[in-house]
Amino acid sequence: xxxxxxxxxxxxxxxxxxxxxxxxxxxxxxxxxxxxxxxxxxxxxxxxxxxxxxxxxxxxxxxxxxxxxxxxxxxxxxxxxxxxxxxxxxxxxxxxxxxxxxxxxxxxxxxxxxxxxxxxxxxxxxxxxxxxxxxxxxxxxxxxxxxxxxxxxxxxxxxxxxxxxxxxxxxxxxxxxxxxxxxxxxxxxxxxxxxxxxxxxxxxxxxxxxxxxxxxxxxxxxxxxxxxxx
Length: 230
Prior knowledge:
By secondary structure, the protein is α/β, with parallel strands linked by helices. Helix content is 40%, strand content 20%. It has helices at residues 16-28, 39-48, 65-74, 92-100, 113-127, 161-172, 180-188, 197-210, and strands spanning 8-12, 32-36, 53-57, 83-87, 105-108, 135-138, 141-144, 149-152, 155-157, 219-222, 226-229. Helix 6 packs across helix 7.
């Protein structure tokens, strides 16, 4: 069963067989997957359900992968989403063009599934470190995603599973304000019906846990916008 807070991958490819094969392997690895058949559908899905990473085929009808990448990287709200470009174009000028358009990685066809999965993990490690067992640190707070331990000033804190995921999400982007809707999507999952008020309740629990041994409250409430760490 795929966890609600597992990274969401948007797979964009007009070849159904290729798309199905990659989607199957991504799901087997524990990722949530959305699929788009062309560039226009991809743009709609990104707006409706922002992914953590996009696997994007270069050659597609109507709207090419290069154009999709260019548009996404030109917008502040989608600029930070990692894009892995898939292409049969293996010449150096083509790779350079893809990367200069904004792609974070470039994989030439034919490729092995193992290689693609390794590239996905590497890019997610930079974008969402808590999902790949990385240790996150902010000020005197340390979160070990692999052992599920959180300490502050060296003292271990007791956090519930939801509070742990909430803290990990905030620690991935210190200073960035995340709305209640964004936190619901990342921590609980889009398919789970939870009221936004639930976020406030768990933020309160997280605040209490973080300050259990003393210290200032590191969480910031931004009226009408959401919450941030620091």
